[in-house]
Structures are given as C-alpha cells and as structure tokens.
C-alpha cells in the first residue's frame, strides 16, 4: 500500500514561494495578534465590574463558587457548547461540526509545520495515513456544518429570528471557500504528484476529488494545484488576520461572557440552576431559600 | 506608525462601560435566540430594534473610535443616522432583562442597556420624549412623579409604629410613596405584625433608579450618598426593600456609586416575611382564592433574584391555590412598565401590560397578585383603557397579606 517513510512533499510546486508564504503567514499572524491586542486593551479600558451585594441569607464565598462555575463553563459549555445543546440539537450539532472541524484542521496545519519545519518528520507512513484520514473527516465536518448553518439561517429560521446581515453571510462563505479549496488543493496535488498516487485510493473526500483531476494529466493538475494553493492559502491567512476585526471574534469573547455570566449567577443564586434555559423553557426557579 | 488623529470626539463610547459590557459587545453571535422572548418584539415585531441589532450598532459606532481604522488613520465622526437609530432602539426597551436570561452567551443586558443609554445621553440623543423631564423633576422633588416631598410618608397607616433608630431600615421608594400606596402600606403593616421593628427616613430621596435607567447618571451619586448616610445615622444594619426597581438599584448599583460595599445588608420584604412565617412569628388567616403570581422583572431577574420568597409566603396562606403563569420565575414576561418606556411609548407599554393580564386571565384564576408598584400602576392603567381585554382583579401581594394577619 505505502511504505513506512511515505509522506507528502510540503510546498509541492510552490517551493519558489516558501519564503513568501512564511512572510505572509507572519504578517497575518501579526495582524491577528495586533487585532486581539486592540480588543483586549479596549476591554481593559472598561470599568471594573461592580460587585453584587450579598444579603444575610447568602452563605459561603462567592469567589469559590464562581470559579467552580468558570471551570465548568470552559470545559462543558465552551468546548462542548452545552448551552447551545440545551436550546436544540440541530444548531448544536452544526456548531460542533464547524467548531471541531475548524480546530482539528488548524491543529493539523500546525502539526504539518512542526513535522516539516522543525525537522521532526513524524508525519510519515501510517501516522501520515491516519493524519490524512482525520483531517479529511474534519474538513467534511466543517463543510457539512457550514451548509447546515446556512440552511438554518436562511431557510429554517423563524421570521422573528432572522436578524442576519451581510457579514454573517460573508463569514459563512469565507469559511466554506477555505474548506472547499482545501479539498480541491488536496485532489489536484494527488493527481499532479507521482509520489502521491497511492493516496488516490484512500477512503477520503480528497482522494475522490483527486480522481476527478487525474483525467487532465499531471501537468495540468500541477498548474491547477499551484493556482488553488494560492487561493486556499491566502483565504486562510486572510481569515486568520480578519478574525479579530469581524463578528467571528465571538469565538474568543463568547466563552468569556459565558464564564462571567456563570460567576454572576452563582453569586446571585448561591450556586444553583443552569445559566441558560433549555429550549421552550418558560420558568426559572431562582435562588434556593436558606432557613 | 499610527496616523495623526483627525479629530477628538468629546464622548468616548467605551468610557463608563464595564469590562463585561465591552466583552458582551464582541460576544453576541447574532443567533437571534433572545428575540422571540423580548416583550417589545412581541408587541411591535420591529427587528431593527432587537437586542442583536442594538449590540451590532453600538459595536460599529465604537469601532469608528477604537477600531483598527481609527487607530491607523484617525477617528471618524460618529455616524449620526446610526446613532439616532441606536438611541431609538435603546429607548424602546423596558430593560426587563429577559433577553439576557435567554442569551446563550449570558450577556448581562440589564446592565448593558442602561450603560449604553448613558452614552446616548452624553451624545445628546437621549433620553427619549417625555423621559427628558425625569432628571429635572426627580432632582427638584426627590421623586420622578413631581409629587411634594413633604407628602412622601402620607402612605403610613396611623396604626404602624416607626422607630427613630433601628437595626432594620425600610426603604419606601417613590412608586410606593405616591401612585401605589397600598403596596408599602401593606408591607409596613406585615413587618409590624411579624414583630420586626424598623425605621423609615423622614427625608428619604429617590433611590436613583429612574435616572440610572434612562442613562442620566450624573446626579445618581448624590441620591445614593444622601440615603446611605441617613440610614447609617439611624443605626441601620439591614435595609428592607419593597419595590423591585429600588431593590435592583440598591443591591446592584448603590455600591458602584457609593464607591464601596454598603455598610448594611439588603433584603426584600418577602424574604423577611417568609423568614417570620418559617419561625412561626406570623400567622395568616384563610383566603379561599385561586390566584396567579406575576414575577416582576427586576425582582426575579435582578441581583437578588427574589423568586421563591413570595411563593413561600403564599404557601403559608390557608385555602389559597397558586396557579403559575406559563412564563414565570426568572423567565416571566414584562408588564411594560420598566425602562422608562411607559413615558416614552404609552401604547406599546399598555399593549405589553395587556399581554400579561391576558396570560393570567387564561388560567381561570380569581385574582392576579403582583409585588411591584410599577406593574401595579401599569396594569391598572391598562384596565382603564376603553378596549382593555380583561377585568381580572390585580392586587398587591403585601396589601392582601396585611389584611390577613
Ligand atoms: S431588556 Fe426586555 S425589552 Fe429590552 S431588549 Fe431585552 S427583552 Fe427586549
Ligand atoms: S441571544 Fe445573546 S448572542 Fe444571541 S443574538 Fe441575543 S444577545 Fe446576541
């Protein structure tokens, strides 16, 4: 099937632009860090949050309770978005597909960099095969999740929930384009690079795309590969740089707001009740009485 | 190198907002999950004044002062059209906080909206309509109703004894002192029957809520300091509140304006009464009625989240049957009285009151009990309108209890 040293050539067909890529990536990262710094310094210029006064019937330390709540939020409510699950399975599963798909692809790109640039070369042989499989499914999850979100927003949403603007649509299209060009890039690469022929029979979406490219021959596939590489890479770098300036920044801010809400509510209730009411909820019982 | 700033706008939109407020602006995912529960949306259906739209507009305006372009090329003047739209949206809101309760990322809307309104005031696009008179009237009369300060204690029943100094202070509040007297008259009677000695200020001022909620914050500190200092002078260690707006203002905002934690604890009347009933210090006579209880926004969703205590009080009433409204507790509907909307948009606020009354009426109960002077005033006013949908009797909880002790 393939040897233990099997791997793919990073920067195949675009080695001449390696320095250009790293320079561009550095610029994108710098813009992202600057954007985050702008946001965080804006947040820090806000007033301290006022303490909620505690009555005589409240017992225990608000801080102890609150940090327990924050820990819960970061594990369950942020990584698993249980707050969304309480509202509905469809929105939750689409969010999970997009979020985890994106996170795995991002981690995969970093792993590729570590393997290639730091000379560790651990992405060889069967490890490379598994890596490819995981990344492919993460990519499929991302595309399915994005399509599902688009269907919910523009087809399924009740009229009173339709508050989406141009930026909402733009972000969906941007993410989708990155995912899609990722598969096209993979497919064109397999068809163009003789070394990667075994990959064409792997059970991945990338392999299926690759088989469609084979007919045009390695030279044409190679040209396509280079063109798609630029589109994919620069869309991804644009997205990295753009996140702090877009509504997507909620990926950082929402967990913080949710954590703060958990703290507030734990203090207010003396440690009770889920902070987000489930779908269709009509009542909340509030603080337990101390006798 | 950053470009020179083109102009220095006088009002900096981020100033005066808390860190949580600022994070919230970036946290909103525009999921729209809060919209179906907003009473303004239920009454008007205007999406352009919905919570995510308010947050997006504020974020866009803020970015013209602190966004990347502003940092690189200088601040741009605020888009006046957008500012006016934002102001309209912010003042068409009862600050009921339901959106925050349903918000998936937990945005503290009950604080965010008044803080944003404060910026509108600084920019000269708030308050809205007749709310503009509130600050002047409140400062002049020490109450937002323009009623004589000398008549503030006219509600006090002659049979109730008030101490000169006591560990318990009772905060009357403007709505109880003027348009909704039965509520506080009932509360002080019940406290006396429960054997809780208390003092009341002869010179009690407004708690500052009407100013804070419309965004006029400059005089709030004076109201807060006056009241706190007077209660301290009378040896108060525990302040008992009645009105939900006062309760929220005192627990959530007085420390902010006082500059430190308050020198006394704060409890709501129903918490004290429930406690007295549990200890057997108070007995209630039979009341054979089927009732529903409407949770006031600022009591159920405010910093003290007073939801169980009124229900516990009701459980001690022999013969009384409580039927819950579909939306109750921290998710109760808003009666349309809050946030200054009753001054700004009479029809909208009456529509909202009618929605709550109709919800109660559908339960087939004899009466609806409430525990808020603003709800009391608004629902009665709604029932005085020619085309009101229901004559369900609306009574105050403490007024009813005071007649049974
Ligand atoms: S506070 Fe109440 S009225 Fe205002 S936006 Fe939120 S839900 Fe609507
Ligand atoms: S529920 Fe919260 S995050 Fe969603 S649109 Fe409303 S305010 Fe924004």
Question: Which terms would index this structure?
Answer:
heterodimer; A: 291 residues; mainly alpha; Fumarate Reductase Cytochrome B subunit; B: 405 residues; alpha/beta; Fumarate Reductase Iron-sulfur Protein, Chain B, domain 2; Rossmann fold; 3 domains; four-stranded parallel sheet; three-stranded parallel sheet; 20 helices; disordered N terminus; binds iron/sulfur cluster
Provide a descriptive summary of the structure in words.
- The complex is a heterodimer of chains A (291) and B (405).
- Chain A is mainly α.
- Chain A has a single domain (15-269), classed as Fumarate Reductase Cytochrome B subunit.
- Chain A contains 9 helices and 1 strand, in the order H-H-H-H-H-H-H-H-H-E.
- Chain A has helices at residues 18-44, 62-78, 82-85, 89-117, 125-156, 166-192, 205-214, 217-242, 250-269, and one strand at residues 283-284.
- In chain A, helix 1 packs parallel to helix 8 and helix 6 (166-192) crosses helix 7 (205-214).
- Chain A is globular and about 65 Å long.
- The termini of chain A are far apart.
- In chain B, helix 19 (373-384) links the parallel strand 7 (367-370) and strand 8.
- In chain B, the strands form 2 sheets. Chain B has a 4-stranded parallel beta sheet with strand order 5-4-7-8, sandwiched between helices. A 3-stranded parallel beta sheet of chain B has the order 1-2-3.
- Chain B has 3 domains: 19-126, Fumarate Reductase Iron-sulfur Protein, Chain B, domain 2 (Orthogonal Bundle), CATH 1.10.1060; 135-275, Rossmann fold, CATH 3.40.50; 283-402, Rossmann fold (3-Layer(aba) Sandwich), CATH 3.40.50.
- Chain B has helices at 19-27, 39-44, 51-66, 68-73, 80-91, 98-102, 109-122, 134-141, 174-177, 181-193, 209-214, 220-233, 244-258, 269-278, 297-300, 308-315, 341-344, 346-361, 373-384, 397-402, and strands spanning 168-170, 238-241, 265-268, 290-294, 321-322, 328-329, 367-370, 394-396.
- Chains A and B meet through helix 1, helix 9 and strand 1 of A and helix 1, helix 3, helix 13, strand 3 and helix 14 of B.
- Strand 1 (283-284) of chain A pairs parallel with strand 6 of chain B.
